[in-house]
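Data availability (excerpt). The following record was deposited with the supplementary files.
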Amino acid sequence: GVSFHWKAAHKDKSAGMQRGFIAQDVEKVIPEWVKTDAQGFKSVEKVGVEAMLVEAIKEQQELIKKQNSNIEKQNAKIEKLEAEIKELRK
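Predicted structure:
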């Protein structure tokens, strides 16, 4: 996502700060979202973006769960090793 300014003369878009996507960047990944008008201006029609975002969040949550599980295992191993070191030092 980016912030940008529409030129006042462009289509029916209001001038000023906008937030969105760069059509040329989106086109490389999801070409069906990008439309080109008669003057060659590209725009993004984000049909289904919510569904894709939800799926991406689900994937991230799965990754976070796996990472948390690994961290818990590593912490348990560290505690065990620290206890062994403490016992050896006695």
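Summary of structural features: Strands lie at 2-6, 16-20, 34-36, 42-44.
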